[in-house]
Automatic annotation (TrEMBL):
PANTHER family in alphabetical order: FUCOSE ISOMERASE, L-FUCOSE ISOMERASE C-TERMINAL DOMAIN-CONTAINING PROTEIN
Entry keywords, A to Z: Carbohydrate metabolism, Isomerase
The keyword Ribonucleoprotein belongs to this UniProt entry's keyword annotation: no
GO biological process: fucose metabolic process
Species: Jannaschia aquimarina
Protein name as annotated: L-fucose isomerase C-terminal domain-containing protein
Domain L-fucose isomerase C-terminal as annotated: residue spans: 352-436
Molecular function in Gene Ontology: L-fucose isomerase activity
Length: 440
């Protein structure tokens, strides 16, 4: 058997650590292959699309994507689309060490699983230590789908969503079709260029920024931040709040990177935390369905919501995380001001989520069909897993990792405190879409 490898990574993560992980993965793969099988393809990290690499693996019996760090799904999806053989994904795992999220490879696996599901492509996968027999020769993922809801219908209110900028390339999880969304939920989407947000933020009057400056002043470590970056970040909060008022928006979906860092010079994460706490949820990466999901869950829970990535799974627990934008009322204790772990710009919030019952929800387009995806669990008292805003969730049901990948779910889920499963089943009943309860 010929195994073709594509080791994927991005330079904004911990490259030296990624190289260590790749070396260990290659050593395990070579030992498994022995003299019986051949391993072909690049043996160093691919930091972007590489046509030569595609040529090296074109005739392999198995295309093995080595997801060493988080990446978008564009290159991997193209590689898989042109490959006639078996497809497998092996994502590297990192410890919950309380520091930077150095690889974020599980989220990359999640993103790619959604893209492959949209393309009706079966695959096998592993995370962390891999059973290579199972990965390379065993069963592929069998997609899972929801069932009709029998809950009493709960009608979501009409929503106005602001979409500022386009979603990043390779993020199929953030794609949307405005007429299709409107037909399903009645939501209207108001669009704006990202540059218009930046121009507005630069011109915000000082008195409009003052309330956000006061909130930031209460954070530990805020005086250690770059004053210019902090000012620009707080101006984004004021600008977004002004847009919300003028356009009568219920939620927003904002293209947050790389331009907020590379063109504007300040993070939007702290602004998103402040607006979320004030009941205007904002979705990262211009994720319009994520914004709709947040607004629905916020109404059902009557509480702030957090749009999170699931970045690690181990046994019965998982880590929900984002750079630093969860609402402040979710904090377990003290909060600190910090900078983005990859881009090193302010303002972000840093804290662990407080203990309590939680519901995670997504209005999903997985496998090209609408469904309501629900997961429940307990946010537990645990040390900070990764910097930013993160929490450890003990899931109510076993095998959450298997269920998540088989569902083809998008990489963002909205989280609120409390168990809101029955009301969300009612929303699904009103929308006439199936309900998938992960791990059930």
């Amino acid at each position: 058997m010929k195994i073709g490898i594509l080791p994927l990574a991005r330079p904004t993560f911990d490259v030296a650590y990624a190289e260590e992980k790749l070396a260990a993965m290659l050593a395990a793969l070579d030992a498994w292959a022995g003299a019986a099988h051949s391993v072909v393809g690049p043996r160093s990290l691919l930091m972007g699309p590489d046509e030569d690499a595609l040529g090296q693996v074109a005739d392999a019996d198995v295309l093995l994507i080595l997801q060493v760090t988080f990446t978008d799904a564009a290159f991997a999806t193209r590689a898989v689309a042109g490959h006639p053989g078996r497809v497998a994904i092996w994502a590297a795992r990192e410890p919950r060490a309380g520091g930077r999220l150095r690889l974020n490879a599980f989220c990359g696996l999640n993103l790619l699983s959604h893209a492959l599901g949209l393309n009706d492509r079966r695959f096998a996968w592993a995370y962390g230590e891999a059973d290579l027999d199972a990965l390379l020769t065993g069963p592929e993922v069998a997609p899972v789908f929801g069932a009709p809801s029998d809950a009493p219908p709960v009608a979501p209110r009409p929503l106005r969503i602001g979409r500022i900028g386009e979603h990043p390339e390779g993020f199929d999880t953030c794609r949307y079709n405005a007429p299709r969304l409107r037909a399903l939920t009645g939501a209207e989407v108001v669009t704006m260029d990202l540059s218009a947000l930046f121009d507005r933020a630069r011109g915000v009057e000082a008195q409009a920024v003052a309330p956000y400056r006061e909130k930031a002043a209460a954070l530990a470590g805020v005086d250690d931040l770059d004053a210019g970056e902090l000012d620009r970040s707080l101006r984004l909060a004021a600008a977004l709040d002004g847009i919300r008022t003028e356009e009568r928006l219920d939620a927003m979906a904002i293209r947050c990177w790389p331009e907020t860092f590379t063109e504007y010079g300040g993070a939007v994460c702290g602004a998103v935390s402040m607006l979320g706490e004030a009941r205007t949820p904002c979705a990262c990466e211009a994720d319009v369905y994520g914004a709709v999901t947040q607004a629905i869950l916020q109404d059902v829970a009557d509480a702030p919501v957090f749009l999170a990535d699931i970045v690690d799974m181990e046994g019965e627990t998982g880590i929900v995380w984002h750079c630093g934008q969860a609402p402040a009322s979710m904090a377990a204790g003290g909060m600190a001001a910090t900078v983005h772990t990859n881009r090193r710009q302010a303002l972000l919030y840093e804290f662990t989520l407080r203990p309590g019952r939680v519901t995670l929800f997504r209005l999903s387009q997985a496998h090209g069909r609408h469904q309501a995806v629900i997961a429940t669990g307990e946010a537990v008292d645990a040390p900070m897993a990764f910097t930013g805003t993160s929490g450890t969730i003990r899931w109510d049901r076993p095998d959450m990792a298997d269920a998540l990948i088989a569902s083809g779910l998008e990489h963002h889920m909205a989280l609120a405190y409390g168990d809101h499963s029955e009301a969300l089943r009612g929303v699904a009943a009103h929308l006439d879409i199936p309900v998938l309860e992960l791990g059930a």
